[in-house]
Amino acid sequence: MIKALSLLFLFFTSCIAPKVNVVQPTFSTIYKNSYSGNEKSGYVHVTNNEDYIKLIESLKIDESEFNKLVTVNFKENDIIILYQGQKNTGGYSIDVSSIHWEKDILLVKKNETFPEAGKPVTMAITNPYCITIIPKAKSLIIE
């Protein structure tokens, strides 16, 4: 009887899976603007400083802001730039709301804001975009 209880105890305790601490990856949106973005919606994944400098120069960012953006550690991080595309009015924006790993793929969830119906908006052509620092990733999917 004692042997049976010991075996039963051993069986049940060996089936318990150990707890795994999952560390959520971090991200930081370092710049958002409604002008000088891309006419089409989409994204750019930047993995090195040289390409990043060229890209932010093409966005016509003010020099005072430009100096803040050039300090990215590309040994540990990448950059994604999300474009919402050309819009006929103000009231639009785009940002990263969350990221998480699924195997070796970084899933990036975006949040797009649209003007409220019936509310006044700026009458200007806009091209909203955001620049976000993410962990190094060989592959990513934007959701």
Can you walk through the features of this model?
This protein is of the alpha+beta class. The protein has three helices and seven strands. The strands form two sheets. Strands 1-6-3-2 form a four-stranded antiparallel sheet, with helices on one face. It has a three-stranded mixed sheet with strand order 4-5-7, with no helix packed on it. The longest helix has 13 residues, at 2-14. The N and C termini lie far apart (57 Å).
Task: Give keywords.
single chain; globular; 143 residues; alpha+beta; 21% helix
- The percent range for strand residues is 25-35%
Major sheet strand order: 1-6-3-2
Give the count of helical stretches.
Answer: 3
Count of individual beta strands: 7
Structural class: alpha+beta
State the oligomer: single chain
Gross geometry: globular
As a whole number of angstroms, the C-alpha radius of gyration is 23 Å
What are the segments in which pLDDT stays under 50 over at least 5 consecutive residues?
A: none
* Mean pLDDT metric: 86
Could you state the order of secondary-structure elements as H and E?
HEEHHEEEEE
Q: Portion of residues in helices?
A: 10-25%
**In this structure, how is the largest beta sheet organized?**
4 strands, antiparallel
Distance between the termini: 57 Å
